[in-house]
Amino acid sequence: MAHKTRVFSGVQPTGNLHLGNYLGAITRFVKLQADHDCLYCVVDLHAITTFQDPDELARNTREVTAAFIASGIDPARHIVFNQSQVSGHAELAWIFNCVARLGWLNRMTQFKEKAGKDREAASAGLYVYPNLMAADILLYHATHVPVGEDQKQHLELARDIAQKFNNDFAKTIARAGYPDGFFPLPEPLITGPATRVMSLRDGTRKMSKSEESDMTRINLTDDADLIAKKIKKAKTDPEPLPSEVKGLEARPEADNLVGIYAGLAEISKDDVLREFGGATFSKFKEALAELATARLTPIGDEMRQLLADPVEIDRILSDGARRAHDIADPILAKTKDIVGFIRS
Ligand code: AQP
After folding, report:
1. What structural domains does the chain harbor?
2. What's this model's pTM, rounded to 2 decimal places?
3. Which residues line ligand 1 (CB under 6 A)?
4. Mean pLDDT, contiguous 10-residue spans, the chain (344 residues)
5. What is the DSSP pairing of strand 187-189 with strand 144-146?
């Protein structure tokens, strides 16, 4: 039985939502709404894999929700909710903890990066994070997952988990009426010119929420002056911009700024270089600052307005959670039957 097309993705409420999250994920979320059923989740269970101050976690959860809506996600037509309100995520993650192999998790580069040198001090949750991510997606039988480039390896693991579950439980899955497997193998959607936005201060490092210096990233709540200042101070090299994409090779900072322009203008890097090839960085940065301000400041303004009414944001999340439950509960119940759990 072919699985119905369904989109799922999430963003962690860990503060400092930035241009990378926006171009790599949220703008894709917005586009997919036109012809898919979408679930967009504020993944608070993932956030606590590193310690979060409880008051900040609640504030950041509302902030990501506001960013979704201000960017153009429609919570009435699609489903916007926070992960901890649907307990099926944690329940299915436990089952997947027992399906995924340690060897698979040991290969995850994000764990190695986030745990750093002192792995013994990392939480067990950070280690099994990819199993929870597989559960997030498969709890809804989601088939397509828009993410930034950094999540590609986790998506591959989600496919491996789905495949192994389908193989391990083939007998009861067939008995339940799914001869082609119970879980779909979800497809990553990693497209566009800005799937990996890099730090403004080092073109070889990912733009990230947890980077200490605020000057490395543009936050969705930055005002026009701050955006212009950060772009003006962004690291570049002494050469003018090339006229072709090939000329960006070995120029990570130039490549990053051209990618950001392309992402914001919704054109290709070739188009950007057709317009700016031969230009100095000071000229290009001026145009980039203007574009970034025009695109981002209305979002920041709307986020502030939405955040002024936290009760309404909480209502949207609980309405979304109720509708997410409606999809998840029968899938989780079937999963339990397949595994052999008795339920009343
Ligand atoms: N720099 C980026 N470029 C493109 N896409 C990005 N994403 C994150 N950073 C970039 C995408 O944004 C979505 C939500 O990410 P997340 O907040 O859930 O987790 P993350 O990838 O861990 O984000 P950060 O900013 O890098 O946080 P820290 O600093 O905590 O590690 C995902 O689709 C992600 O690919």
Report:
1. 6-189+309-339 (3.40.50.620), 214-305 (1.10.240.10)
2. 0.96
3. 11-12, 14, 20-21, 24-25, 147-148, 150-151, 195-197, 206-210
4. 88 96 96 97 98 98 98 98 98 98 97 92 97 98 97 98 98 93 97 94 95 96 97 96 96 97 97 96 97 98 98 98 98 98 94
5. parallel
